Amino acid sequence: MYNSQIIGLGHYLPQNSVSNDDLSKIMDTSDEWIQERTGILSRRWVDSENKMSSSEMGYKASLMAIKNAGIDKNEIDHILFATISPDYYFPGNGVLVQDLLGVGTIGATDIRNACSGFIYALSIANAYIQTGLYKNILVIGSELQSPVLDKTTNGRDLSVIFGDGAGAAVISRSDNQSKIYSTHLHSEGKNSLELSMKGPSVIHGMTELKTNTANPQLFSPYMNGQMVFKNAIVRFEEVIKEALNKNEFTIEDVNCLIPHQANLRISQFIQKKLGLKNEQVFNNIQKYGNTTGASIPIAFSEAVEQKRIKRGDLVCLAAFGSGFTWGSALLRY
Ligand code: UT7
Q1: Active-site residue among 93, 260, 263, 284?
Q2: Packing angle, helices 264-274 and 225-246, rounded to 10
Q3: What is the dihedral of CA 40, 311, 176, 12, to 10 degrees?
Q4: CB under 6 Å to ligand 1: residues?
Q5: Residues 52, 53, 54, 57: what is their CA dihedral angle, to the nearest 10 degrees?
Q6: pTM exceeds cut of 0.70
Q7: Is the pLDDT of residue 48 over 90?
Q8: What are the φ/ψ torsions at residue 211 (nearest 5 degrees)?
Q9: How far apart, in whole angstroms, are the C-alpha atoms of residue 87 and residue 79?
Q10: 189: which residues sit within 8 A by CB, 6+ positions away?
Q11: Contacts within 8 Å (CB) and 24+ apart, 250-254
């Protein structure tokens, strides 16, 4: 069995930065409320002047990841694309990136596990490399969420949180100390509608859309915020401990925890509960909001860029979100 490691990371954020004050001009909200409840100061939203799809943002992040990996794009032998905001109902975004990159007819897999999507994708990449099936896998998390948000006061609980952006990583066979120790994936489908967008899907609104009789509420995300918050803080803690225990590490051994950037208050709660120091946790939700499946690779890429994570560091990634799904990955960078 082979080990796998992350050899290159990249990210792409749309230029258009939207501040809390900008939002308070279009809905009944305030900088004070948003900062106090979420820690967010601004988010990036694709605008009409610089239109971008999630596959295009994923492609841009991939170019940076491949460059940082120091490999030729033709050495990539599989693509994994995590998103809940794909360009099309079908096909998935993976094939679109295969085409944009102009690489050979390698396989492309799509993952729909929302905030946990990157960890699910990383887990599959790790297993593919461990078995020897592939050597260099491009893993992408990218989301274009702003067009579907309800930007009126009705949708303010969700629209102030979410942002657009993409992150990518090249996962390769390791011949040194860098490796992914383990990944841990969980789900609880009984809570599937507590954080969901029902349509358009085959049974929710697709037919009605054609006759203009669809209920628009089907096409905006819904979140039972307090319930999600309460579950998130329990599951984050559990799944981080699961990864540490499995590999016989302690919380003191962790150089950097990158929690999915759901809400700064959630990250701070987990940090306190686990007894982590400020320098052991990386957050950037303040600048980008919650970018769902893109948040972990964007944060990881920035943490490396800012030298908050160096080669040899023990890094823990953890996520919780729609499904509910949650997961963690423990790795030596
Ligand atoms: O990434 C996937 C996982 N997602 C998460 O983990 C997010 C989990 N949930 C949360 O982060 C929080 O529940 C939110 C940030 C979404 C909401 O914070 P909250 O403290 O749970 O607020 P709430 O929904 O209970 O609303 C409290 C009050 C309400 O007013 P009343 O009924 O007390 O008068 C809301 O109408 O705040 C009001 N409110 C707002 N006020 C100003 C809700 N959204 C806003 C807003 N601006 N944007």
Answers
A1: 260
A2: 40
A3: 40
A4: 29, 33-34, 37-38, 115, 156-157, 160-161, 225-226, 228-229, 232, 262-263, 266, 290, 321
A5: -30
A6: yes
A7: no
A8: -115, 15
A9: 16
A10: 323
A11: 251/275, 251/276, 253/314, 254/280, 254/314, 254/315, 254/316
In one letter, which amino acid is 282? F
Active site residue 256: no
CB of 118 within 8 A of CB of 138?
Answer: no
Q: What is the pLDDT of residue 120?
A: 98
Task: Give the Cα separation of 245 and 256 in Å (integer).
Answer: 16
Residue (of 134, 140, 205) closest to 170 by Cα position: 140
**Annotated catalytic, 204?**
no
- What the chain holds in terms of domains, given with CATH numbers, is 3-176 (3.40.47.10), 180-332 (3.40.47.10)
Looking at residue 322, what is its pLDDT?
98
Rounded to 5°, the CA angle 67-141-181 comes to 80
